[in-house]
Amino acid sequence: MIDIDRYLHIIEEEVRNYRVPVVDLIGIQTSDPYRVLIATILSARTKDEVTAVASERLFARAGNPERLMCLDTETIEQLIYPVGFYKTKARHLQATGRMLVDQFGGEVPDTIEELVTLPGVGRKTANLVLAVAFDIPAICVDTHVHRIMNIWGYVTTRNPLETEMALREQLPVAYWRKVNSLLVAFGQGTCRPVSPHCDRCVLAEDCAQIGVKPRKC
Using an 8 Å Cβ cutoff, are 119 and 110 in contact? Predict the structure, then answer.
Protein backbone atom coordinates (compact mmCIF):
# COMPACT_ATOMS: atom_id res chain seq x y z
CA MET A 1 0.00 0.00 0.00
CA ILE A 2 1.34 3.41 -0.96
CA ASP A 3 1.76 6.24 1.55
CA ILE A 4 -1.25 8.26 0.42
CA ASP A 5 -0.53 11.07 2.90
CA ARG A 6 2.91 11.56 1.38
CA TYR A 7 1.64 11.28 -2.21
CA LEU A 8 -1.14 13.83 -1.76
CA HIS A 9 1.10 16.22 0.17
CA ILE A 10 3.59 16.15 -2.72
CA ILE A 11 0.80 16.65 -5.25
CA GLU A 12 -0.67 19.52 -3.24
CA GLU A 13 2.66 21.32 -3.30
CA GLU A 14 3.14 20.56 -7.00
CA VAL A 15 -0.24 21.90 -8.17
CA ARG A 16 -0.19 25.01 -5.98
CA ASN A 17 0.57 27.17 -9.02
CA TYR A 18 -1.45 25.12 -11.52
CA ARG A 19 -4.69 26.46 -12.96
CA VAL A 20 -7.55 25.91 -10.52
CA PRO A 21 -10.38 23.71 -11.90
CA VAL A 22 -13.28 25.98 -12.85
CA VAL A 23 -15.80 24.55 -10.36
CA ASP A 24 -13.37 25.03 -7.49
CA LEU A 25 -12.73 28.57 -8.70
CA ILE A 26 -16.46 29.31 -8.64
CA GLY A 27 -16.61 27.79 -5.16
CA ILE A 28 -13.85 30.18 -4.07
CA GLN A 29 -15.60 33.18 -5.61
CA THR A 30 -19.04 32.42 -4.20
CA SER A 31 -20.67 30.16 -1.63
CA ASP A 32 -23.85 29.94 -3.76
CA PRO A 33 -24.71 26.22 -4.18
CA TYR A 34 -26.85 27.07 -7.23
CA ARG A 35 -23.87 28.48 -9.14
CA VAL A 36 -21.67 25.57 -8.14
CA LEU A 37 -24.33 23.08 -9.26
CA ILE A 38 -24.95 24.73 -12.63
CA ALA A 39 -21.23 25.20 -13.36
CA THR A 40 -20.61 21.55 -12.52
CA ILE A 41 -23.34 20.42 -14.92
CA LEU A 42 -21.88 22.62 -17.66
CA SER A 43 -18.33 21.39 -17.04
CA ALA A 44 -18.97 17.77 -18.04
CA ARG A 45 -17.04 16.91 -21.24
CA THR A 46 -16.08 20.59 -21.57
CA LYS A 47 -12.81 22.49 -21.23
CA ASP A 48 -12.58 24.68 -18.14
CA GLU A 49 -12.12 27.90 -20.10
CA VAL A 50 -15.30 27.19 -22.11
CA THR A 51 -17.22 26.35 -18.93
CA ALA A 52 -16.12 29.59 -17.27
CA VAL A 53 -17.32 31.79 -20.13
CA ALA A 54 -20.59 29.88 -20.60
CA SER A 55 -21.32 30.00 -16.86
CA GLU A 56 -20.77 33.76 -16.79
CA ARG A 57 -23.17 34.31 -19.70
CA LEU A 58 -25.83 32.06 -18.17
CA PHE A 59 -25.60 33.56 -14.69
CA ALA A 60 -25.98 37.06 -16.15
CA ARG A 61 -29.45 36.02 -17.34
CA ALA A 62 -30.33 33.37 -14.77
CA GLY A 63 -28.71 34.02 -11.42
CA ASN A 64 -31.17 31.84 -9.52
CA PRO A 65 -33.45 28.83 -10.15
CA GLU A 66 -36.54 30.99 -10.66
CA ARG A 67 -34.95 32.87 -13.56
CA LEU A 68 -33.44 29.71 -15.01
CA MET A 69 -36.77 27.91 -15.22
CA CYS A 70 -38.28 30.89 -17.06
CA LEU A 71 -35.75 30.72 -19.90
CA ASP A 72 -36.73 28.59 -22.88
CA THR A 73 -34.31 25.86 -23.93
CA GLU A 74 -33.34 27.66 -27.13
CA THR A 75 -32.17 30.70 -25.16
CA ILE A 76 -30.22 28.49 -22.77
CA GLU A 77 -28.60 26.74 -25.73
CA GLN A 78 -27.42 30.09 -27.09
CA LEU A 79 -26.07 31.16 -23.71
CA ILE A 80 -24.07 28.00 -23.00
CA TYR A 81 -22.82 27.17 -26.50
CA PRO A 82 -20.23 25.68 -27.20
CA VAL A 83 -20.13 23.50 -24.07
CA GLY A 84 -20.21 19.78 -24.76
CA PHE A 85 -23.71 18.37 -25.40
CA TYR A 86 -25.14 21.87 -25.06
CA LYS A 87 -28.58 20.91 -26.38
CA THR A 88 -29.01 18.13 -23.82
CA LYS A 89 -27.61 20.31 -21.05
CA ALA A 90 -30.00 23.13 -21.95
CA ARG A 91 -32.96 20.80 -21.45
CA HIS A 92 -31.52 19.50 -18.19
CA LEU A 93 -30.81 23.00 -16.89
CA GLN A 94 -34.30 24.29 -17.63
CA ALA A 95 -35.82 21.24 -15.95
CA THR A 96 -33.42 21.55 -13.02
CA GLY A 97 -34.44 25.15 -12.41
CA ARG A 98 -38.10 24.16 -12.32
CA MET A 99 -37.45 21.16 -10.09
CA LEU A 100 -35.44 23.24 -7.63
CA VAL A 101 -38.34 25.68 -7.37
CA ASP A 102 -41.18 23.17 -7.33
CA GLN A 103 -39.67 20.47 -5.13
CA PHE A 104 -36.93 22.14 -3.09
CA GLY A 105 -38.24 25.63 -2.42
CA GLY A 106 -35.74 27.25 -4.75
CA GLU A 107 -32.77 25.83 -2.83
CA VAL A 108 -30.14 23.30 -3.87
CA PRO A 109 -30.50 20.15 -1.72
CA ASP A 110 -27.53 19.06 0.37
CA THR A 111 -27.80 15.28 0.23
CA ILE A 112 -26.57 13.00 -2.53
CA GLU A 113 -29.89 11.15 -2.58
CA GLU A 114 -31.77 14.37 -3.43
CA LEU A 115 -29.14 15.82 -5.76
CA VAL A 116 -29.12 12.78 -8.05
CA THR A 117 -32.86 13.23 -8.66
CA LEU A 118 -32.05 16.44 -10.60
CA PRO A 119 -31.83 16.09 -14.40
CA GLY A 120 -28.31 15.41 -15.60
CA VAL A 121 -26.88 15.03 -12.09
CA GLY A 122 -25.05 11.80 -11.28
CA ARG A 123 -22.91 10.83 -8.32
CA LYS A 124 -19.84 12.68 -9.61
CA THR A 125 -21.68 15.99 -9.90
CA ALA A 126 -23.56 15.45 -6.64
CA ASN A 127 -20.40 14.70 -4.68
CA LEU A 128 -18.62 17.73 -6.14
CA VAL A 129 -21.52 20.01 -5.18
CA LEU A 130 -21.56 18.61 -1.63
CA ALA A 131 -17.81 19.11 -1.26
CA VAL A 132 -17.43 22.53 -2.92
CA ALA A 133 -20.74 24.22 -2.13
CA PHE A 134 -21.60 22.74 1.26
CA ASP A 135 -18.17 21.74 2.60
CA ILE A 136 -19.56 18.27 3.31
CA PRO A 137 -17.09 15.36 3.17
CA ALA A 138 -17.70 13.73 -0.22
CA ILE A 139 -15.47 12.06 -2.79
CA CYS A 140 -15.97 13.26 -6.33
CA VAL A 141 -14.48 10.66 -8.65
CA ASP A 142 -14.04 11.79 -12.22
CA THR A 143 -11.82 10.28 -14.90
CA HIS A 144 -8.66 11.84 -13.43
CA VAL A 145 -9.24 10.55 -9.89
CA HIS A 146 -10.21 7.10 -11.16
CA ARG A 147 -7.25 6.90 -13.55
CA ILE A 148 -4.53 8.26 -11.27
CA MET A 149 -5.55 6.26 -8.21
CA ASN A 150 -5.30 3.11 -10.36
CA ILE A 151 -1.97 4.19 -11.87
CA TRP A 152 -0.60 4.56 -8.35
CA GLY A 153 -2.04 1.19 -7.34
CA TYR A 154 -3.93 2.73 -4.42
CA VAL A 155 -7.07 1.09 -5.79
CA THR A 156 -7.71 -1.60 -8.38
CA THR A 157 -11.06 -0.76 -9.89
CA ARG A 158 -12.84 -0.86 -13.23
CA ASN A 159 -14.91 2.31 -13.18
CA PRO A 160 -15.44 5.57 -11.22
CA LEU A 161 -18.22 4.16 -9.05
CA GLU A 162 -16.00 1.29 -7.89
CA THR A 163 -13.23 3.81 -7.27
CA GLU A 164 -15.54 5.99 -5.15
CA MET A 165 -16.62 3.03 -3.05
CA ALA A 166 -13.00 1.87 -2.61
CA LEU A 167 -11.84 5.36 -1.63
CA ARG A 168 -14.65 5.66 0.90
CA GLU A 169 -13.13 2.65 2.66
CA GLN A 170 -9.44 3.54 2.27
CA LEU A 171 -8.95 7.28 1.88
CA PRO A 172 -8.71 9.35 5.09
CA VAL A 173 -11.74 11.64 5.40
CA ALA A 174 -9.44 14.67 5.59
CA TYR A 175 -8.76 14.22 1.85
CA TRP A 176 -12.30 13.55 0.67
CA ARG A 177 -13.21 17.13 -0.23
CA LYS A 178 -9.94 18.09 -1.91
CA VAL A 179 -8.77 14.93 -3.66
CA ASN A 180 -10.75 15.80 -6.77
CA SER A 181 -9.33 19.30 -7.22
CA LEU A 182 -5.79 18.02 -6.57
CA LEU A 183 -5.95 15.17 -9.05
CA VAL A 184 -7.87 17.09 -11.69
CA ALA A 185 -5.18 19.79 -11.67
CA PHE A 186 -2.42 17.17 -11.65
CA GLY A 187 -4.16 15.12 -14.35
CA GLN A 188 -4.56 18.12 -16.62
CA GLY A 189 -1.06 19.45 -16.07
CA THR A 190 1.24 16.44 -15.64
CA CYS A 191 -0.41 13.01 -15.46
CA ARG A 192 -2.38 13.43 -18.66
CA PRO A 193 -4.54 10.64 -20.09
CA VAL A 194 -2.48 10.60 -23.29
CA SER A 195 1.31 10.97 -23.23
CA PRO A 196 1.67 11.80 -19.51
CA HIS A 197 4.74 13.79 -18.48
CA CYS A 198 6.36 11.00 -16.45
CA ASP A 199 9.71 12.59 -17.34
CA ARG A 200 8.99 15.57 -15.08
CA CYS A 201 6.56 14.02 -12.60
CA VAL A 202 7.31 14.72 -8.93
CA LEU A 203 6.32 11.12 -8.15
CA ALA A 204 8.28 9.51 -10.97
CA GLU A 205 10.57 7.57 -8.62
CA ASP A 206 7.68 6.24 -6.53
CA CYS A 207 4.80 5.80 -8.99
CA ALA A 208 3.94 2.25 -10.00
CA GLN A 209 2.91 3.57 -13.46
CA ILE A 210 0.32 0.81 -13.79
CA GLY A 211 -1.02 0.77 -17.34
CA VAL A 212 0.85 3.94 -18.29
CA LYS A 213 2.53 4.65 -21.62
CA PRO A 214 4.94 7.51 -20.87
CA ARG A 215 5.46 10.35 -23.33
CA LYS A 216 8.10 9.58 -25.96
CA CYS A 217 11.08 11.93 -25.99
Answer: no
Rounded Cα gap, residues 149 and 109, in angstroms: 29
Residue from 24, 48, 89, 142 carrying the catalytic annotation: 142
What one-letter code names the amino acid at 200?
R
- Pair 26, 63: CB distance under 8 Å: no
Residue in 133, 129, 101 with CA at minimum distance from that of residue 115: 129
Q: Known catalytic residue: 142? A: yes
CA–CA separation, 119 and 199 (whole Å): 42
Identity of the amino acid at 144: H
pTM here? 0.88
In this structure, are residues 125 and 41 in contact, taking their beta carbons and an 8 Å threshold?
yes
Question: Using CA atoms, how far apart are residues 89 and 92, in angstroms rounded to an integer?
Answer: 5
Q: What is the pLDDT of residues 75-111, one digit of tens each?
A: 999 999 999 999 999 999 999 999 999 999 999 999 9
Catalytic annotation, pick one of 124, 135, 206, 213:
124
Half-sphere exposure of 46 (CA within 13 A, CB side): 24
124 noted as active-site residue = yes
Q: What is the mean pLDDT of the chain?
A: 93
pLDDT at res. 42:
95
